[in-house]
Amino acid sequence: MKNIEWGESNNPPYDNEACFHIESELGIIFPKSYLDLLRKWNGGYSDPSYQIKIEGNVPIDLDYYLREGFWDVSSIAGIWDSKGECSMLYLLDVAKEWGLPEKVIPLQGDGHTWVAFDYRGSNNAEPKVIFIESDENKSFILANNFNDFVGKLIPYADVYDYDGNIIYQP
Asked: What CATH number does the domain containing 130 carry?
């Protein structure tokens, strides 16, 4: 997995028992690469913030969100036994409230838009990572798996200048 500087996590340490409970309740298995990350950095807000480059043709329904060609990844859900901010348990509750489909497991989101694991009809051990909006549940594949997702992250300062103009050069 690409070595990303996530900054300090303010979250409690990763909780294997809580992970097992969540996986059992949802009928999923989190990717090994995601759990490996959580054992080192149990989620939270990243410092610096990252962007993921949008590759491929974005459906017209999602152009409003993804037209700049990048999506902000400023946090990742951690796993522990309570519903603190940036916890998987908290995001699962919020995602349910916003009507995300079953088997779409959020990594980050604000209600309207999410980055999530997509377990719908996929390999249970290596789900795709998607962008999904909650109005019509339209989605777009960001990466084929979590390791690929992390590998595509680019520091914010390499994508945008201080005025918000795109400066990214591949």
From this structure: 3.40.1580.10
Task: Give CA separation, 42 vs 4, 57, 109, 141, 166, in Å.
Answer: 13, 33, 17, 24, 30
Could you give the number of structural domains in the chain? 1
pLDDT tens digits, 90-139? 999 999 999 999 999 999 998 899 999 999 986 677 999 999 999 999 99
Q: Which domain holds residue 39?
A: 16-159
pTM over 0.90: yes
Q: Are strands 70-76 and 104-109 parallel, antiparallel or unpaired?
A: unpaired
CA–CA gap between residue 24 and residue 9 (Å, rounded): 26
Q: At what angle do helices 88-97 and 16-26 cross, to 10 degrees?
A: 30
pLDDT, average across residues 21-30: 93
